[in-house]
Design a protein that fits this description.
Length: 305
């Protein structure tokens, strides 16, 4: 990313839609780069012209010590500007949450694990994790898209906790249907549950592409992060599921138009700045991506950045 380029002028609608939206997950497939490279990338992004789009550094609990060893020199030069970390929790939820609490005490204020991501499929598991949760840590619970999803969203809404949906992966069958994502989003919005998405959202607009960076990689249809964010806004505005599916499956970038105060789809459906701000503050918080450069380059190519 060119650090010497002039600071770009960003439309207010684009800034409202994408501020802090990309959680950097370079350690995870299909990127799977080394810890040293991922930390260097994140430090670079934090000083780039597009740092306003950057969210948290995503790491598994098992690699936290490796992370802080590689990041120590960078963190010491970020005066009062803490590195925020999202920790993916494994099977030992109680032990991991206790460890994160100790990690924060030992490594703050330069680095702080302030969110965790926990995979779950029962309300009992959600209740147990909430009981173990240290103060100041926000949990995102990764939910399945099966028939249990509505009850799990309801369980999260009771105490104002957050949900997560997996929107892709490195195989064709790891990408959920648009209808499943829409059902998740509508359920979260109805219950007042904030949420994030992860995996498979490298590109702004839905497209058919290789699923990894390897030669002869399998190809498949990938959801677009702009489709997802704008679908969330239109869902808040009361669009019917069939129309929301049209938004999620839109593949023509020219039908999305960004002005300073609005974004318009197909010339007739518009979200104003207030609606954009609400879809972020009350709806989708961020998405995990193994690349930060790729989404930005694609947005630049589309003329959105």
């Amino acid at each position: 990313m060119d650090q010497q380029a002039a600071k770009p002028t960003v439309r207010e609608s684009v800034h409202a839609l994408l501020a802090g939206a990309i959680d950097y997950a370079g350690l995870f497939p299909p990127s799977t780069i080394s810890m040293a490279d991922a930390v260097l990338n994140y430090a670079t992004y934090r000083n780039s012209n597009y740092r306003w789009m950057l969210g948290r550094f995503v790491v598994t609990a098992a690699r936290l010590e490796e992370f802080v060893e590689n990041a120590r020199d960078f963190i010491s030069h970020d005066d009062g500007n803490a590195w925020r970390v999202a920790v993916v929790v494994g099977e030992d939820v109680a032990g991991t949450l206790q460890y994160i609490d100790s990690f924060n005490a030992a490594n703050g204020p330069g680095v702080i694990c302030d969110t965790v991501e926990i995979k779950t499929d029962t309300a009992a598991a959600i209740d147990a994790a909430i009981g173990w949760l240290p103060p100041g840590i926000v949990p995102y619970f990764e939910l399945p898209t099966d028939e249990s999803m509505p009850d799990l969203i309801a369980a999260l809404s009771i105490d104002g906790h957050r949900a997560k949906i997996r929107t892709g992966g490195v195989t064709v069958d790891s990408f959920p249907r648009s209808t499943d994502i829409i059902r998740f989003v509508r359920g979260c919005l109805a219950a007042g549950v904030k949420f994030k998405a992860t995996a498979g959202l490298h590109h702004p607009i839905r497209c058919f592409r290789p699923l990894t960076y390897e030669n002869n990689a399998p190809e498949g249809t990938m959801h677009g992060f702009l489709n997802l964010f704008l679908m969330t806004g239109f869902a808040r505005d009361g669009f019917k599921p069939s129309r929301l599916e049209d938004v999620m499956e839109e593949e023509f970038e020219e039908v999305f138009r960004f002005d300073d105060q609005t974004v318009t789809w197909r010339e007739e459906h518009t979200l104003n700045l207030w609606q954009i701000e609400k879809l972020r503050s009350a709806g989708i918080q961020s998405f995990g991506s193994c690349s930060f450069d790729e989404p930005i380059a694609a947005l630049q190519k589309l003329g959105i950045l």
